[in-house]
């Protein structure tokens, strides 16, 4: 028993060490390097860290990041992985914590894939190898390390749970008995909930594919009512567990006219064609690029391996390969070339669905070898060879596609941005930041994602840019201090004067504005969506503005936590009952 436990532990320890070695290689000089979304998500994590540090568990607006304008970003983006990142900031230095966060995500992705693979019939060794090559695929690592598509990669980690739930659902349609399958429902609920609490568009995509799969079952399978019954129960529980995000998000969308992020135009980054797909898969030259718009070399070769040995493959391997090909095609420009002019065009980067194909093809690669090779020792030798190849290929691409380039071009952000010493920073610019300089990232005005979900048509005037109070059309010298869900402004204010505060206001939120004497002010939101008050005939030198956490948000938290706790208790009770 003891030896067996050690053996099982090694199946996690060895991949964990490999992931740690890769991340240590990337950040070996103690730097965190620019990714497409890194600065944005680093700001989100810093925001939540500061809120928790100051005793507030529910950030409503951004007051420590996103230019300290009171942006509603914390409400509009799912925050489950952000909380994990914020907690790690208490344990490790900031940049180190970000690398630990990447490691935790890779281990989560690996562990879920390993468990799901085992549930699909793979042995302990086979499931470990399938999960490893899936996690080590170049597009997967690129999204974690280079692109820093934070919410997306966490959402992707949970997609195999949804996939397993749908496979189990298909198996419950073989007879005419309508019966709720508890494991199927639990998988769908946990998978869908974690996806939506990580990334909204990923949830929309998975929900869309689930709808297509459900339509297939309703047309071609016998027990349609069983499908609808299980999915309906799973949907209700998922909604209840997701209210913690959905209610604040929906109220904010309905209560305001917001500047939503624009969809990316149709490019190779948005939906690749076959030429770009193949090129990104097999690039091993000096100009290698760490691409996301592919499925990786092993997954790609698995398609041909299964096709060439088609007669020897079992039914599941064949279906998984065909589904993977269909998924790849559905995320290509050949489909999205027409969809980008429709309402579906708001779905950015449809190639993110490739993660489903990567997982299925990683499993298919292992099953294909098992079905063709009869000798176990030879099977395991090939498995190990695939694992070593995936590691070597990933390191090669990381080195030539990312590390060498950023080390040569990245500019260190070793000072805070000021009016006298500004930083010219574009969304895709190269920068590097270490533990000492991490907080400098929060001081840049033009940053990726900082202007998401602001009230529509806001004019970024000097008041907002300088965080300065305005009276009589003049900017006052103002000192702004961040607080959880608020800011304190210190300035010499004139009496009985209309005063514009450098914070945007949202109709869906209630604000509390007080001065140093705790006098509370009524406010309005002007044409530029800034908060405006009128000072009294008393001397005012300090104003504190707080966005109140809505009661509906607290209710949503209670419902979601109670539902989640109930589900966990039921799963544990049911497992013990069957033991």
From TrEMBL:
The keyword Nucleus does not apply. Keywords: Membrane, Transmembrane, Transmembrane helix. The keyword Phosphoprotein does not apply. This is YfhO family protein. The chain crosses the membrane at residues 12-34, 80-104, 148-167, 187-220, 227-251, 292-310, 319-339, 351-369, 381-402, 554-573.
């Amino acid at each position: 028993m003891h030896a067996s436990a050690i053996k099982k532990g090694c199946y996690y320890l060895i991949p964990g060490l490999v992931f740690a070695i890769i991340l240590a290689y990337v950040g070996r000089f103690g730097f965190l390097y620019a990714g497409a979304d890194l600065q944005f998500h680093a700001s989100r994590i810093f925001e939540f860290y500061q809120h928790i540090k100051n005793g507030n568990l529910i950030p409503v607006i951004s007051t420590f990041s996103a230019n300290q304008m009171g942006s509603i970003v914390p409400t509009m983006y799912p925050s489950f992985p952000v909380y994990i990142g914020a907690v790690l900031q208490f344990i490790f230095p900031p940049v180190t914590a970000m690398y630990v966060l990447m490691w935790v995500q890779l281990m989560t992705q690996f562990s879920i894939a390993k468990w799901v693979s085992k549930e699909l019939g793979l042995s302990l060794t086979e499931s470990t190898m399938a999960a490893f090559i899936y996690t080590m695929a170049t597009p997967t690592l690129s999204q974690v390390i280079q692109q820093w598509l934070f919410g997306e990669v966490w959402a992707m980690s949970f997609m195999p749970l949804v996939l397993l739930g749908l496979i189990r659902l298909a198996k419950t349609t073989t007879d005419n008995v309508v019966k709720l399958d508890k494991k199927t429902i639990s998988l769908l609920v946990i998978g869908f909930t974690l996806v939506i609490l990580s990334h909204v568009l990923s949830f929309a995509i998975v929900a869309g594919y689930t709808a297509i799969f459900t339509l297939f079952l309703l047309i071609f399978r016998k027990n349609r009512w069983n499908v609808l019954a299980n999915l309906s129960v799973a949907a209700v529980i998922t909604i209840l567990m997701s209210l913690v995000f959905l209610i604040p998000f929906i109220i904010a969308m309905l209560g305001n006219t917001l500047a939503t992020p624009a969809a990316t135009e149709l490019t190779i980054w948005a939906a690749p064609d076959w030429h770009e797909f193949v090129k990104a898969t097999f690039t091993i030259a000096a100009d290698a690029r760490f691409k996301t718009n592919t499925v990786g070399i092993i997954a790609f070769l698995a398609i041909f391996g299964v096709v060439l040995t088609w007669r020897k493959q079992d039914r599941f391997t064949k279906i998984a390969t065909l589904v993977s090909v269909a998924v790849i095609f559905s995320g290509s420009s050949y489909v999205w070339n027409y969809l980008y002019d429709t309402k579906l065009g708001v779905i950015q980067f449809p190639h993110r669905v490739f993660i489903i194909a990567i997982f299925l093809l990683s499993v298919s690669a292992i099953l294909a070898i098992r079905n063709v090779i009869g000798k176990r020792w030879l099977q395991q030798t090939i498995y190990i060879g695939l694992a070593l190849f995936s590691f070597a290929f990933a390191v090669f691409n990381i080195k030539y596609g990312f590390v060498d380039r950023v080390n040569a071009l990245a500019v260190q952000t070793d000072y805070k941005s000021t009016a006298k010493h500004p930083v010219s920073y574009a969304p895709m610019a190269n920068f590097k930041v270490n533990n000492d300089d991490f907080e400098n990232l929060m001081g840049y005005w033009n940053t990726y994602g900082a202007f998401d979900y602001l009230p529509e048509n806001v004019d970024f005037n000097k008041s907002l840019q300088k965080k300065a109070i305005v009276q009589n059309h003049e900017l006052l010298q103002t000192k702004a201090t961040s607080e959880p869900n608020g800011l304190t402004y210190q300035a010499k204010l004139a009496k009985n004067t209309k005063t514009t505060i450098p914070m945007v206001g949202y109709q869906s939120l209630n604000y509390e504005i007080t001065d140093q004497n705790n006098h509370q002010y009524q406010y309005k939101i002007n044409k530029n969506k800034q908060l405006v008050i009128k000072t009294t005939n008393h001397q005012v030198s300090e104003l504190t503005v707080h966005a109140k956490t809505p009661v509906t948000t607290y209710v949503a938290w209670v419902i979601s936590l109670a539902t989640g706790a109930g589900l966990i208790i039921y799963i544990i009770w049911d497992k013990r009952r069957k033991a």
